[in-house]
Write a structure and sequence with these properties.
Layout lengths: L3 E3 L2 H13 L4 E6 L5 H13 L2 E6 L19 H11 L3 E3 L3 H4 L19 H4 L3 H16 L3 E5 L3 H13 L5 E5 L19 H6 L1 H15 L4 H14 L3 E9 L14 E9 L2 E8 L5
Parallel strand pairs: 1-4, 2-3, 2-5, 3-4, 5-6
Antiparallel strand pairs: 7-8, 8-9
Helix pairs in contact: 6-7, 9-10
The structure holds adenosine monophosphate.
Adenosine monophosphate (AMP) binds next to helix 2 and strand 5.
Length: 285
Amino acid sequence: MIVSICTDVALMREHIAVWRASGKRIALVPTMGALHPGHLALISAAKEVADRIVVSIFVNPKQFAPSEDFTTYPRHLEADGAAIEDAGGDLVYAPDLEAMYPPDFATSIHVEGPATVGLEDRFRPTHFQGVTTVVAKLLMQVQPDAAIFGEKDYQQLRVIERMVVDLDIPVEIYAVPIMREESGLALSSRNVFLDNEQRVRAPAIQRALHVCAEAIRTGQAIDESLDAARRMIEDAGFAIDYVEARRAEDLAPLEEGHAKSGRILAAVRAGDIRLIDNVAIDGSL
Ligand code: AMP
């Protein structure tokens, strides 16, 4: 089967309606395209929980600040379609920008609470408004039974879970562990922008987070462990936006004594390239 690529919401819904009428369970995998094996792991996970898989590809301008890389973000729709087909996706939904946000578009979602405070939001203040608005739209458009997100964007995952609960959106959210290169570097569509030297140095980010997790796990003070990780990352030549430890389930501040249930989250920069990563303190994936 050649996977269908729909750019039109009505056409996409016609496919979904046929599947629904025959009792199929539908999963949505939202992406911004430029797919790599991390995205494909989300499709595999979707296949475990649903009969038909819709992969959306939409580079969402509302989640980029004016200074960010919206115009240069990699776009490879044809290659993505082929990769989705190989991975067993059933439909690619790649809506037009104007259809998603017509000139009179005037609505946005605003999520508050611990999951939204103190990490990405400090550096990308309008980011989650953009993410939640587009994810809410995609969920309304596709009305899937399940939606799959990566732990790579851990704060995003928790913010979306919050939104779905708060707005009673009838969808089950599934999380997929981070897929990494052999070097340990988390796969990201932005890794193509790393030059050779940055690529050699980038695995130090994950190593620092693991050393930090291990230190906290074995009883060292959280603040000291985070400082050591920050130094390791800086020594590898990256500028730090944040390296923080949070409670995994809701990203509230992590208290000493309860650290094993925590997550260490980081965002760092190599020139204009911004990389994020996170690890579980308990040493699980
Ligand atoms: P993006 O296209 O970067 O917006 O990502 C789309 C989805 O893929 C999000 O749920 C991401 O968290 C997830 N994702 C991206 N990279 C990875 C990775 N290396 N491992 C697991 N999930 C990922």
